[in-house]
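Job type: complex structure
Entries:
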Amino acid sequence: MTESTKGIIFNIQRFAIHDGPAIRTTVFFKGCPLRCWWCHNPESHKILPEKFDGCNLRRGFDQTFSMEKDEIGKEISVDEVMNEIVKDRVFFEESGGGVTFSGGEPLMQPEFLKDVLAECKANGIHTAVDTSGFAPTEIIIDVARSADLFLYDIKLMSEEEHQKYTGVSNQLILKNLIEVDRLGKKIIIRIPIVPELTDTNENLSATRGFISRLKNINEIDLLPYHRIGEGKYKKFSKQNKMSEIKSPESESLENIKKFFSELECKVKIGG
Ligand code: SF4
């Protein structure tokens, strides 16, 4: 084990059922190069730990390495994070679950991610990487060698809209997805369903057309926008550009599900 490798995370969530197959432990990496308007984890954006008055987001953390009360993010070694992950091994074995690395964007800390993935592999623990796909191609290919599954977001197919609503181009993201697919990795596509932004006929048709050309898509998860992150924008004094947008109606979600089901792969509402 590479004992010296350290990363910065901001949460460990146990018994997660929306972050990949079966019961999982989700490790949330701090730092993300995107700024999606609908992000419900705005506290993940900056990579370094941050102090906020009166915040307390320590849910799921074990007492042994919980963060300071007013701090979001903590430096942690591969050994320490593995100590937390293996505590849940019995649940992984019974349910067929494992650990999911999410964020933020886990590919922003590639050395730490690769070392934890290698340790999980050595311990026989199933791994999933939940990513926006916005990372250098060589990094994503390198990570794909150790990860069992990718949870890969497709948000907007229009380059212009992607730039506007996430802050970055979608070109690298789509190119990387083609590369990961070529490697034969298992992939679950995750599509945030945000009324008026991502749920337009144009965007959904273009997304389905793109997915239809990939070979290793196991499942498509439709992630309905919800407003639970709203309070965080206030708490962390960040600008919320989504105050007018409501959660999608269930009828609309069912129609979108039907639309993607024509690809003959499993489609789920929720993760
Ligand atoms: S990629 Fe995920 S964590 Fe990053 S800004 Fe978008 S929604 Fe938030």
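Summary: The longest strand covers residues 6-16. The first helix runs from residue 78 to 86.
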